[in-house]
Amino acid sequence: xxxxxxxxxxxxxxxxxxxxxxxxxxxxxxxxxxxxxxxxxxxxxxxxxxxxxxxxxxxxxxxxxxxxxxxxxxxxxxxxxxxxxxxxxxxxxxxxxxxxxxxxxxxxxxxxxxxxxxxxxxxxxxxxxxxxxxxxxxxxxxxxxxxxxxxxxxxxxxxxxxxxxxxxxxxxxxxxxxxxxxxxxxxxxxxxxxxxxxxxxxxxxxxxxxxxxxxxxxxxxxxxxxxxxxxxxxxxxxxxxxxxxxxxxxxxxxxxxxxxxxxxx
Length: 265
What we know:
Number of domains: 2
CATH architecture of the largest domain: 3-Layer(aba) Sandwich
Strand content: 15-25%
CATH topology of the largest domain: Rossmann fold
Structural class: alpha/beta
């Protein structure tokens, strides 16, 4: 059986890429709900309908685990999805806890970058409230980055001015860690680094989610020695045209380069 990955668009590829590195021999389904992207600017109940329709489709394909590789979808639907399905469902949430732990000793603030819907959700509010005892967490919605990613617009000469405008009212020297709270945002890590002081850490939850997936499959004795086969779907339609498949493969190559720059591996 395959492992399912779901996102509103191509942002989930940043999490999927980490899973491919950790579990290269598994077979996968990657489902991007491109007809309805972006989720972060839509009404909550509308987005919930899209999410359940997509997961119903993937469940019918036969999957042994599902990763909701979308912070917005996780924040509004993961608990209800777990009640409906009997396979493991992993979500992703902004990496606020390690950011706060790192910054408290430095007397620095944390800045969470995410979508409007993620930042408005009670799940995010409760996460911050349970961890942020010294009121050091701030947030900023950056919906433009989602649109840039979905349009395959990664040029720094386009992205950096957008970031400078959105961050113009922030004193960037106050921050110790920037949390990428949307899976679309790691594509722009190099642009974000150009805005903040060199000593500021930039983190996301992608690696932790992939490691947790492997741990769960090991506990369930469901690690497969498959072919590393990947099926791509866009809003329920199998992706078979060469141009789109080539674009997806180029994204994975791009993420390899980002990972090598970040980790030196």
